[in-house]
């Protein structure tokens, strides 16, 4: 309505790639990011992959004057890497860790150890809205698009994120979601997330855009990116997003969207291996509550849910094969240990005493069998849990699909 107050909200989102001892020029880049945030004066800052709490503490001290409110989300073995800085009071926080986060034996990827999560908080601004659930996250990385072994896990994460948003935002006026989704705009996971929640893409909705072509946030020109991985994408890929929607009597419009384009101003290096995304949103109260977004394209949404459920089913069958394989290995290792125990008892009882007992080789074989037994049992338990999570998500998607198909 005319005369209603309008909030101009400036949001900054960046995957910082700040892994201690591994990320190149990490401390220097963290300092540059702090300078950028202090100069620009954004309203909300969403950062991912800030793996060192010391880096967060340094940023917090540097930005205290312009961002008096901040929070760091802790999860997993090495932390979630998620943190937020805000000009508005943070009313409450919540961290949800996805049920599937990759594989613990894929040490070179490390997603399982960080415990990929979605962080949610309520932020308040007195004149315009009472509460604003704000989510920011990072989903499991893709690593190889042609042979994407993590696609089922990423789809489970996208589904859990969509359910999380639907169930936690019922009392909200506005929902914002930002972060590195590790999905291309037309991937089934991003279509599932947007279709099931009604979130709108700031890049697609922006009145003005400035930055990398097609809004790409991972580009070959960045000196920190792996050029070989970017060969299929000469212009880059867009995997970092700012999504939003209004739920109650508010409207949200994206006035402007920007991305950084290479090196930081006056420097020879960029802020990260990702480009930052900066959105300017206009939030205004309207006369009547906004209608529900879900259900406006039920047929298209049903197709997306069906596609996602099919991929989850493929992952379920692969997990079942892994569970069977490692279960069989555990049984074989246990049988070998029992045979060795029987041989040792036979020797102690005097059977076969005419031949010397090979103690060294026997002990080595026993230790090897015990190691295989422990490893195989652990992986069997892990893949059993994976099967349960994938099966549960498949059932949830089936119920959602049935509800969409039966809706008048």
UniProtKB/TrEMBL annotation:
SUPFAM superfamilies: DNase I-like. Pathway: Sphingolipid metabolism; Lipid metabolism; sphingolipid metabolism. The chain crosses the membrane at residues 330-353, 359-382. One of its GO terms (cellular component) is membrane. It comes from the Eukaryota. GO terms for biological process: sphingolipid metabolic process. The keyword DNA damage does not apply. It is a multi-pass membrane protein. Keywords: Hydrolase, Lipid metabolism, Magnesium, Membrane, Metal-binding, Sphingolipid metabolism, Transmembrane, Transmembrane helix. GO terms for molecular function: metal ion binding; sphingomyelin phosphodiesterase activity. This is sphingomyelin phosphodiesterase. It comes from Rhabdornis inornatus. The lineage of its organism: Eukaryota, Metazoa, Chordata, Craniata, Vertebrata.
């Amino acid at each position: 309505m005319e005369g209603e107050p309008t909030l101009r909200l400036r949001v900054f989102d960046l995957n910082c790639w700040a892994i201690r001892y591994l990320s190149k020029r990490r401390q220097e880049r963290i300092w540059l990011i702090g300078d950028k945030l202090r100069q620009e004066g954004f309203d909300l800052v969403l950062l991912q992959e800030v793996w060192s709490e010391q880096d967060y503490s340094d940023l917090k001290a540097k930005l205290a004057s312009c961002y008096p409110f901040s929070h760091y989300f802790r999860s997993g073995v090495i932390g979630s890497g998620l943190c937020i800085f805000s000009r508005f009071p943070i009313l409450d926080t919540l961290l949800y860790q996805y049920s599937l986060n990759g594989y613990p034996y894929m040490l070179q990827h490390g997603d399982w150890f960080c415990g990929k999560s979605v962080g949610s908080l309520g932020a308040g601004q007195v004149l315009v809205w009472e509460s604003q659930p704000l989510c920011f996250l990072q989903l499991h990385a893709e690593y190889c698009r042609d042979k994407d072994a993590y696609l089922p896990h990423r789809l489970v994460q996208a589904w859990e994120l969509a359910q999380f948003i639907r169930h936690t935002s019922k009392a909200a006026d506005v929902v914002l979601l930002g972060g590195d989704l590790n999905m291309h705009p037309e991937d089934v996971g991003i279509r599932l997330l947007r279709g099931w929640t009604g979130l709108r893409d700031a890049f697609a909705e922006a009145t003005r855009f400035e930055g990398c072509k097609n809004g790409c946030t991972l580009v070959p020109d960045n000196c920190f990116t792996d050029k070989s991985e970017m060969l299929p994408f000469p212009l880059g890929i867009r995997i970092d997003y700012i999504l939003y929607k209004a739920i109650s009597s508010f409207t949200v419009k994206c006035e402007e969207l920007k991305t950084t384009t290479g090196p930081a101003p006056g420097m020879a290096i960029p802020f990260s291996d990702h480009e930052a995304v900066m959105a300017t949103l206009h939030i205004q109260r309207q006369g009547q509550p906004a209608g529900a977004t879900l259900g406006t394209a039920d047929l298209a949404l049903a197709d997306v849910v069906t596609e996602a459920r099919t991929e989850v089913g493929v992952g379920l069958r692969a997990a079942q094969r892994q569970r069977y394989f490692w279960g069989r290995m555990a049984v074989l290792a246990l049988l070998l240990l029992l045979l060795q125990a029987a041989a040792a008892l036979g020797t102690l009882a005097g059977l076969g005493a005419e031949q010397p007992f090979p103690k060294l080789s026997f002990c080595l074989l026993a230790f090897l069998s015990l190691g295989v037994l422990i490893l195989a049992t652990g992986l069997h338990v892990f893949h059993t849990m994976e099967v349960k999570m994938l099966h549960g998500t498949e059932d949830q998607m089936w119920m959602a699909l049935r509800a969409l198909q039966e809706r008048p």
